[in-house]
Amino acid sequence: MADNDCTTCPELLTRLGAAAGGLNALAALIDSEMVEPTMPWRDLLPQLALRARNLADQAQGRY
Predict the structure, then answer these.
(1) Where along the chain do its domains lie?
(2) Which end of the chain is more exposed for a tag (fewer CB within 10 A), N or C?
(3) What is the pLDDT along the chain (63 residues), one digit of tens a residue?
(4) What is the pTM of this model?
């Protein structure tokens, strides 16, 4: 019987690894903005939302 466990799928692992790296970068951005803001929250929140949306798309293999 062939091993069809998707958790070993190289494409899945690559996508999830990239998304995890993006989440770490997003967390670092949030942390740095909390310590020393470079822009108002009004401008930052849409950027955070866009980055989170892009990471979700990436994890789902949409690009």
Answers:
(1) 11-30+42-60
(2) N
(3) 455 666 568 888 888 888 899 999 999 999 999 999 999 999 999 999 999 999 888 888 886
(4) 0.73
